[in-house]
Design goal:
Elements lengths: L1 H22 L1 E19 L4 E2 L8 E12 L7 E7 L2 E7 L4 E3 L2 E3 L4 E7 L2 E12 L2 E12 L1 E7 L2 E7 L2 E12 L5 E12 L2 E14 L2 E16 L2 E17 L1
Antiparallel strand pairs: 1-2, 1-3, 1-17, 3-4, 4-9, 5-8, 6-7, 8-11, 9-10, 10-13, 11-12, 13-14, 14-15, 15-16, 16-17
Keywords: Signal
InterPro entries: OMP_w_GlyGly
Organism: Zhongshania marina
Length: 245
């Protein structure tokens, strides 16, 4: 009798471990992003056009992320993502202006860098988990960049290094028995005249734990602080590899 009880206990523990394994998981992904830049920035008398004045066009960046999920209902899951988002170009100015106290003349050739690279830390809950997956949570986006313009009068710069809280929604729609899926992820915040929105749409094919995904990402920034303004849009297509365990 005692041996039978021990055997039943072992079977119950094994079943419990198997159940936990089914609901404890990790997802990781990485992609190359073909970025198209446009917009304007201001830190003084006039706005500077990124395309006409600074010579911005296209750039290639990368992003990678990892998400960990667990079976404890009251504790949120966690997702970390890093995105490299910077461009450096040389351009010929179409007008005179000041930027961060430095004066720049019309037709002057300047070197500039705009860096909107950031790290996202997201806490979220899984609302749906079947052929439709839906996650809802909060992201803290930590910028660590700047906008700088260098000319004959010196270099002016404004820092972009503040943490920004954002709403987070991540959805995935699986087409049963095919391996095909569609996904969408949105981070957004709006307060006063300031707004940041970041939307990603993807279409993928999953074979086992590995998936290939093509998609489109649109990142919009509208920020205003006294005489400093940034109205920037970066968008383009990406190709990703995803591992789902």
């Amino acid at each position: 009798m005692q041996k039978r009880l021990i055997a039943l206990a072992i079977l119950a523990a094994s079943a419990s471990v198997a159940t936990q394994a089914d609901i404890v998981g990790a997802t990781a992904g990485a992609y190359m992003w073909k970025q198209s830049w446009e917009g304007d920035v201001k830190a003084g008398s006039q706005s500077v056009d990124m395309n006409k004045d600074l010579g911005y066009d296209d750039e290639t960046g990368k992003s990678f992320y990892v998400a960990l999920e667990h079976p404890v209902p009251v504790i949120p899951n966690i997702r970390l993502q890093r995105t490299d988002l910077d461009i450096s170009e040389q351009g010929t100015l179409t007008k005179s202006f000041t930027f961060d106290g430095k004066g720049y003349a019309q037709s002057e050739v300047v070197d500039s860098t705009t860096d909107l690279s950031h790290t996202d830390a997201t806490l979220y809950y899984e609302i749906l988990d079947n052929w439709v997956n839906l996650d809802v949570g909060v992201t803290v986006r930590m910028f660590d960049g700047e906008v700088s313009i260098k000319g004959t009068s010196g270099e002016g710069a404004i820092d972009l290094d503040a943490p920004v809280p954002m709403g987070y929604i991540n959805a995935r729609f699986d087409l049963p028995l095919t391996g095909l899926y569609a996904s969408g992820l949105v981070n957004v915040i709006s307060y006063g005249d300031n707004k940041i929105s970041d939307a990603t749409l993807g279409l993928g094919y999953e074979l086992g734990i590995v998936g290939l995904e093509i998609g489109y990402r649109n990142f919009d920034v509208d920020l205003e602080d006294d005489n400093e303004e940034a109205n920037v849009t970066v968008d383009g297509y990406f190709l990703a590899v995803v591992i789902d365990i």
